[in-house]
Amino acid sequence: MAVAQEVGNDMKKLLLLAAVALTANATSFYLTVAGLGGEPDYEQRFTGWASDLNKSLAGEAGAKVDTLSGKDATKANIQAKLAQIASQAKADDTFTLLLIGHGGYDDIDYKINIPGQDISATELAEALNKIAARQVIVNATSASGGSISKLQKEKRVIITATKSGTEKNATVFARFWVEAFRDPAADTDKNQTLTALEAFKYASAKTKDYFESLKRLATENPRLEDTGKGDGEKDPTVANGQGLIAGRFPLLHLGSASAVVNSPAKQALLKRKDDLETSIDELKYKKASLDARAYDGQMRTLLLELAKVQASLDQ
Amino acid sequence: MKAKHSLLIAALVLIVLYVGDEQRWFRQVPASAQGPGPQVECEKLRHHGDPAATACYQRLSRSNDPLTKAEGLWGLRDYDGANLAFRAAVKLTPKDGSRRVRWGRMYLDHWQVGDAQDLFKEALDLNENDAQAMLGMALALSESFDGEAVKFAERALKADPTLAEAREVIARIRLEDNNPEKAVEEAKQALQISPEALQAMAILATVEMMDEKPATEWTDKIFKINPTYGEAYETMAHFFVINRRYDEGIALYRKALDVKPTLWSARAELGVNLMRFGKEDEARQNLEACYTNGYKPPLVVNSLTLLDSYKNFETYTTPTTILKVHKKEAALLRPYFQAELDRAVATYEKKYKFKLDGPVQVEVYPDHEDFAVRTMGMPGLGALGVTFGKVVAMDSPNGRKPGDFHWAATMWHELSHVYVLTMTDSRTPRWFTEGLAVYEETAISPDWGDRMTPREIKAIKEKALLPIADLDRGYIHPSYPEQVIVSYYQGGRVLTYIIEKWGFDAVLGMIQGFKEKKDTVQVIKEVLKVTPEEFDAQFFPWLEAQTKKTVDGFNDWTKQVKIVNENAKNKDWTAVITEGTAIRDIYPDYVEAGSVYEFLAQAYLAKEDKTNAIAQLEGYAAHGGRNPTTLKQLADLQAAAGNKRAAAAAIEKVNLIFPKDETAHQKLGGWYMDLGNPLAAIREFGAVLGSGTIDQAGAHYNLANALHAAKQNDKALEEVYLSLEAAPAYKPAQKLLLELSPQ
Is the interface score ipTM higher than 0.90? Predict the structure, then answer.
C-alpha cells in the first residue's frame, strides 16, 4: 500500500505537470542531424528518415523544424544551430534533437560520424546545457548507448538506439522512431498527443519485432533515461522510476488535442473530467493491491462516467 | 515427416529421425572379432553375460600398463579415466594404430562419434589396410546413415574376411534400407564366421518379428549364449521404431530392460519414445533414471530439458483434437491452427473413410531446436513436422523466417500421416506415406504445396528418379545429397498420377493392401493391375510430358532470368517486361527470391500500370509464392483498386505462412468489416491483440466494434472497457461504451 500511495502522489504531480505541458503556449524546436552514411544506401536511408520526420512535423503548430544532413551536418553547423536555439528557446518551450547515422565509442566518449571533424557527446552536452527549453535527445546512431553518461541531466530525456557504446552495428531504431510520428497506433493513450515515452515504446517494440522476424540476434537494444542518473531502461516504468518526464513530453499533436475549451459553461465539466482521469490513474496504480472484481467495478464506473462527461463536453 | 524443402542440407531430413536412436551395440561383439588385447578375456565373459566380467575389468583397471588400464576402466564405464589412460597408451607407442582404434571405439561407446572418427582416420593414416580402423569408420558412419558406411565395412572385410562384426554392420544397414533379404544374407555370413555373433542373430530375429513370426529360434540361441543380452530386444525395438511401429518398439524396449535393467541406452530410447507419445511422466522417470546413473548423452539431457519446458505450453482440447501451443504465441496462433486442424480432421475422415479412435494431438514449437529435441532428442533436425502415431510435432511459423515455410501445408501433410499410419498399423512404405502427404498439400489448395525446384528439374533431366519398387531407398539411404527431397517430389507426383489415372479409391485400396502386409510390388500389381515396371513405363513419360517445357527450357531460362535481373537493376523496365514475359511461363513454378513475376510487377508499377502489376503478383500467389512482403504488396494493390475481397484473400494466404504480422491483421480486420464479415474481423482483431500490439486501446476497440457488428454485445462491452482502461479518453471507444451500456 505504501508503494501504491507513493505512486499515486507521483501521478498527481505528473498529471499537474502534464496539464501545464498541454495548455501552455509554448514553442517546439526540432533539430535533426543526419550524419555520414559511408555508402550510398545508408546515406539515402539517413536523409530519407530525416525528410520523413520533417513531413510529419509540417503541420505541428508553433513548431520550428531544422535539419542538418549530408555535407551540411558539420560540427560547426550543429554547434551554430544549437546556439541559435539556445538564444530563442524559453523554459516552457520544448526541444527535440534527433541524431541519425553511425556513431562510435572509444570507452571514454561517444562521437557521431559527420563531415569533417566529428562531434562528441561531451561537446553536444555543452551546447545543450545552454538551451533553457525542456529537452528530448534521441541518439539513434550505432553505439549511442555510449553517449548516455555524457548527455544525461536532470529533467532531460535521453533516448538511445543501443544500450551501450559497444553495440556498433548500423541501427534501425531511427526508422521506427520516425514511423511513430505517422502511425496513429503509436499514440497508445489515444489523447491525440504523441509523447516521447509513447514514441520510444513504439520504436523499441518495432525494433525488437524487426530482429525477431529476421531471426537475427538483436544488435541494438534501445534505452530511455530521464532521471539524470543511471544507464537507461529498456522498459521505463513507474517501478524503475524512468519515463515520468518522457511520458509528459509532447512531440506531436495528432488532432484537436491542443484546442483549449474556453466556454465558461463547460468549466465544471472540464473539472469533473480532470478529476475522473486522475481517479482512473490512481486506481490503475492500486490495481495490484485490490481484489480483481472490486477493481473492475470501480474502473468501469469511472470509465462510464468519464464517457458521459466527454459526451456532454462534445455537445 | 514434412521435409524442409528449401535447404540442400535437408537431404537427411528423414533419416535423422534415427540418429536419435542412441543404440550402442558396438561392444557386444564376439571377443574373437575384436583382435588381440588385454581385454579379450573380460569381453568373452561379458559376451556370455557372466557377472565375473566386472571383476575382470576391475583387475585390468589396476594395471600399470596404460592400455590394459584403459580397457579396464572403459569396461567399468569410467570414461574419463579410460580416456586419460588411452591417451597415455597412445603416447607410449604413437605408431601403434590399434590403440587409436580401441580409443575410438571407446568414444563411440560414449556418444563422441566425431572424436571416434578422428582416431579411426589417424589409425588409417598409419596403416591404410587396418581392418579394425575401417570397421570403426563403418560403425561411426552408420550412426549418421552415411552411405559410405557400407563401403568401409566392405573394405574392412576385404582386409580381414574373418571380421564378423563388419558383416553385422552391413546387415544392419541393409535392414534399415528395407532390404530384409540382403540383411539376412549378411547376418548369416556373420554367423558362419562367428557362430556366437549376437547382433547377427538379433538382426535375424528382427526380420522374423517384423514379419509377424515369433523369432524364438534366434532369441533362444541368443539367451542361451548370454541370458542377459537385452541388446537383442533393443536392436529389434530400433527397427520397429524406425518403421514407425512405435507401440511394438516401446514394448520391445521394455523387454530389453526386463532382461537387463542397466541397459541405459534402451531406457533412454524408451523415455524418448514415451515422450513422443505424450506419456511425459513415465518418460521423465526413465530419462531421469538414465541421468542419475551417469548415462548422460545429449539425447537424455536435451529431452529432460524439453520436458521441463512443457509447463510453458497451453493445451486446448476438443473431442477430436488436442492442440499444444507455447503460451507466448497461443493467443495469436490458436484460432488459425485450430481452424485448420478441425478442417483437416473433417476432410480426412471423409476422404479416407476412417475415424481415429482418439483425439489427434498437434504440438507447435516456437523454438526449432525444441522441436528437434522433441522429435529425436537432439537439435539440428532439418524437418518441419514429424508424426508419431496420433501425435504431430511441428515448427511454429514464428520459429522460422517469414516465408520460410507454409505451416498449414505442413500440418495437413503430417495429419495425412496420422490417418494413413493408423489405418495401416504403420505398415506403409515411405514413398507411399510421404507421397500421399505431399499430394494432400496441393489437393487442399493448389498454391500450398512445394514447387518443382532446380534439383528436381536436374533429376528429371538426368533420369535420376527411382523406379517405384525402389523408391523407398531415396528416402532412407540416398545416393546423392538432394535425393531425399527429390524423392518427396517424386512420391507426390506418383500419387498424383495414380489418383488421376485410377481415382482416389485406388489409394484406399493400396492403403488396405499395405495394412494386409503386402509390399509395394504386390500392392501395385493387385490394386493398379500393372507390374511395377509397367507402372514406371507409364509414369515417367507422363511426368516428362508435364515438365518438358521447364526441363527443356531450364538452361535458357536461367540465363535469361539473369538478364531480367540486370535490366531491373538498371531500371530498364521496358526490357524487363519484354524479356520477363518471354520467359516467365517456361518455369512458372519458380516463385523463390527473384521470381520473374516479381520483376514484372516491379516493372509495371514503375510504368504506373497497376492492373498488370496485380496480374503478375496474382500469378505469383497462384503458383505458391510465399514471400509475405510480396503477398502483402499484392493485397495493398488490390485494395487500392477497390477489390477488398481479393485483398483479403491475399492476406489469408499470409496467415497460413507467417501470421505474426500485426499490420496485416489490422488491415484484414478492417477489410472484413467493410465486406460485412464481422466474424472474420473478430478473428483478425483478436490476432492484432495476440501479436502483442503496443496499441492495446486501438486493438480492443476494433475488436469491440467487430463484436458489436456481430451482435455479440456482452463481449463487445468487455473489450471496450479494456480499450478505455488503456486509454480512458479515447473518444470512439467512449461513444461505443455509451452505445453498449444500458441507460
Answer: no
